[in-house]
Amino acid sequence: MTRGGALILWLAALFLPAAAHAADPRLVPDVSSRAIDIQYSFTGEELLLFGAILYPGQRLPDDRADIVVVLKGPVRPIIVREKRRVAGIWVNANSLRLRTSPGFYAIGSSRPIDKLVDERTAAIFELGLANLSMSPSGFSEAKKLERFEAGLSELYRRIGLFYENPAAVEITEGVLYRARIPVPARVPVGTYRAETYLISRGRVLAVASRDVQIRKAGFERFVALAAQRHGFLYGLSAVLLSLVLGYGASAIFRRR
């Protein structure tokens, strides 16, 4: 092979992966609100995740593409305790510390996850409640870890902090998509990521994300900032307020 032919093959090997990557579709995602304010009257909200799929040459493929949307955050360590009944009294028996437990996780898709990707792909991208990686602290038996994670998942499901809907995503004309994710009143504050996955033939073709801020506002924000920045004065004020209210209540009852 001549030196010129080797150079051509080297250039082809260099640029072919880039060309193949450029041929993949792109996602243009957005959310209905980049910031959610929590006030005393906050009873929850519905967040709309929507966007478009941009195909190369504006040509729709013959195979159907699916969309999965995920809203999650903030990640934090948590200690899960297991209670047992001993002599008629419920006591803490075992505990497990999870280092990367999301305070909120919601996933919606155009079809069930097990119909879109295999178990390995779902685990890599953490698609679905069963595939969340919570990183236990220290060695833990597989059965114990599974029991504690299942208990935490069930608890968070009941209070609305974990949500899963295999029919939440609606795709129009193969290009536009949208999904509504319920945000409960008890949602923790912090930075959330709204992620969108484009999936076809069991492969994730594109991923895009947007940040969403959930924060306290009004008097709740004032109290939260005071507790964080001036902890001693906040605690002292709380004690004094309790004493004043207690003294006032006792004075009212003495007059009666």
Enumerate how many helices there are, as a single number.
5
Separation of termini?
108 Å
Query: What's the helix-strand series?
Result: HEEEEEEEHHEEEEEHH
Tell me about the largest β-sheet: 6 strands, mixed
Name the CATH class of the largest domain. Answer: Mainly Beta
Domains, number: 2
Structural shape: globular
What does this molecule look like?
With 256 residues, the protein is α+β, with helices and mostly antiparallel strands. It has 2 domains: 24-216, Sandwich (Immunoglobulin-like); 218-251, no CATH class. 31% of the residues lie in helices and 39% in strands. The chain is built from 5 helices and 12 strands. The protein has helices at 3-22, 119-124, 142-158, 219-229, 231-255; strands at 26-31, 35-38, 45-54, 66-72, 75-86, 89-102, 105-109, 162-165, 169-172, 176-183, 190-200, 203-216. It has a 6-stranded mixed β-sheet. Strands 1-3-10-9 form a 4-stranded antiparallel β-sheet, with no helix packed on it. A two-stranded antiparallel sheet has the order 5-6. Strand 11 (190-200) and strand 12 form a beta hairpin. Helix 4 (219-229) packs across helix 5. The N and C termini lie far apart (108 Å). The model is unreliable at 1-20 (pLDDT under 50).
